[in-house]
Amino acid sequence: MIRMRTQFTSCRIVALLVIIVPALAVAQSAKTKAPTKSSASKTVGASKTGVASLRDLTSQYVGAGGCAAAACHGESADSKSRPSSKNAYSLWMVLRDPHSIAYSVLKTDASRRILWLLDGANPPPTEEEQKPWRHAAPHRDPRCLTCHSILPDASATVSDHLLADGVSCEACHGPAASWLKPHTTAGWLALGPNRYQSIDQCAAVATANESKSGAAPSGRMWNTRDIQSRANVCVRCHVGGPDRDVNHDLIAAGHPRLNFEFAAFMANLPKHWDDSLAREALQYTSAQAAPRELWPDQSNWPPEKRADNEIRLWAAGQLASSRAAAALLDQRAGAAENELPTGALHPAWPELSEYDCFACHHDLSAPSWRQELSYTAGRRKPGELPWGTWHFSRLQEDLWPTVLRTPSYPTAEISDVRGAMATLGAKPDAVAPRAKTLAEALCANSAAVTADWTAPKISAAMVQIADADKLDSWDEAAQRYLALVAFANAYRRVAGNQTPATHAEMQTRLEAIRKNLNFGPGYRSPAHFSQKTVATLREQFSDLRDHIQARSHESGDR
Ligand code: HEC
Ligand code: HEC
Ligand code: HEC
Ligand code: HEC
After folding, report:
1. Cα(275)–Cα(47) distance, integer angstroms
2. Residue 124 exposed, middle or buried by CB count within 10 Å (0-12, 13-18, 19+)
3. Is the distance from the beta carbon of residue 313 to the nearest atom of ligand 2 less than 6 Å?
4. Which of 10-19, 207-216, 280-289, 489-498 has the lowest mean pLDDT?
């Protein structure tokens, strides 16, 4: 599911897509198995959280209770309290951060039903039974806990409180046993950036703490301040990875599709930290010193200070997501090749969630927008499967050279994977090495975003994003919409010369686009995307593009 936010960063409660579990019929069966060693690549964030390492793992975590003392992060708070480091825990609970309920959600009927279907509707329903899935135990199942809690397993050695807080503090700030003590001493802050460990997907630092060999805990917190490191943390669950997989079996059983876009998810995350800097930064105008010059050291200062923060979030998220997606595909193909489970799921191949959902889930109407957009346009041959439409969008290819400091977009590696994935007969042993090469190519790219985001440059990028001719799937349109929101927010801060009316005009247009991308009531995955929607979206994107060009002309953005 994706929550499309509106364009104000400050407005985190958005008009949401209604999410209700639809009646789902099907699930391929999958057996529960403990994750075992797989031959898949270790290049990118490969974590091996086998049962053997559980004891090591457990001892590295202290649980949210360890942060909740009144003198630490547990000062009482209500929903109107100003966030500070003192009340982070209490706010996290009162604001009902989605992560605080991630474990309890596993005890709902919806979750039980997902798992029951996934396991082949076993035991079969009897006539009098209303809820045959009620015995399913997703809250004890590694296939779910791996993302819905801080620990992947619920065996006897793991005390319940470690699980019950869901995706709690240590899921993002890192296992605390090794740093909790120094963290409470006066010397901690004096460590400056050295108190953080950067989460680098490529060097697999993120998972060093979790490795079977029990690599020495770092004594440092994971760096959530640096936005690339922060994005690398989020994608571990929001895209997935080794031992963490929301595949098509799970989606078919009722799990929402994972559509991660970092800027939007950051906007939707309730803030348990002092975000006044971000709000204050809204007041910066180009006439004043730009925040990025005020706060040159990213690792030391809140990135929210930067006027172009949202563009940075967008770019960091694209890079982190596509790296994670490539590594996940390598893992999936490797598992299929060796018939080993991924994320404790039975290997499914070809993995259908790698493709555009609408390639299969659609009405067969004439005229057909898919024929028109893909076959007529020469982008695909009839019957070829469109791979990577979310994580490797055309938008990414368009913007990469402009946004990232190292401009080499791995076009060749991507089309290699796309070619190998284009049929249902895709061979895992052909896909795995190509996905690995792609992951490596993405890792060779610097994470740094170009530093000079002036108003004209943002406008030019927005014109590129709002390209109506590129809208060939829901994924492409949604990615472009989300990027437009991020860039529009940055523009507002960087240009600093917009009247409320100018901003409102942009907002109205973006909102109209959002409405056309909504999943319908009762759906938690893309639905209701038709020839007519595509035509409307094209008009809306063209209109938006004209509007941006006119605006930039008027304000002398040249
Ligand atoms: C790869 C990580 C991952 C795994 C594995 C996973 N989930 Fe999730 N789950 C998520 C994320 C992330 C979301 C939020 C989706 C979003 O909004 O983008 C979610 C959402 C959900 C929701 C919807 C919650 C709501 O508030 O509407 C349910 C129910 C759910 N998961 C159940 C399960 C069950 C049951 C399993 C095991 C069979 C499972 N999940 C495995 C990551 C995962
Ligand atoms: C989903 C990921 C996530 C979870 C879970 C999470 N945090 Fe955070 N936390 C962040 C992000 C992102 C920031 C803002 C960036 C930063 O300052 O590091 C942050 C900031 C903070 C800060 C402010 C740090 C500073 O230097 O200003 C504190 C304190 C904090 N979190 C405590 C907690 C506590 C206590 C919990 C558990 C109740 C928790 N966090 C759970 C992601 C998370
Ligand atoms: C350990 C796994 C994990 C990590 C790490 C994680 N999340 Fe999540 N996130 C989840 C799960 C699971 C859910 C679904 C919770 C539910 O609805 O019950 C979720 C839900 C969310 C939601 C609500 C989505 C919706 O559609 O309602 C947002 C926003 C979010 N996460 C943002 C983030 C951000 C930003 C980060 C990184 C700073 C992050 N998450 C890191 C597992 C994780
Ligand atoms: C290559 C074709 C293909 C692709 C691509 C595909 N699916 Fe499916 N999907 C199927 C088939 C086949 C079934 C089983 C059909 C049935 O039982 O009616 C299915 C079943 C489902 C179901 C359960 C049945 C239903 O109609 O609700 C859901 C939900 C679903 N898919 C969602 C998705 C999502 C979301 C995506 C994109 C991430 C996706 N699918 C991509 C072929 C595909």
Report:
1. 32
2. exposed
3. no
4. 10-19
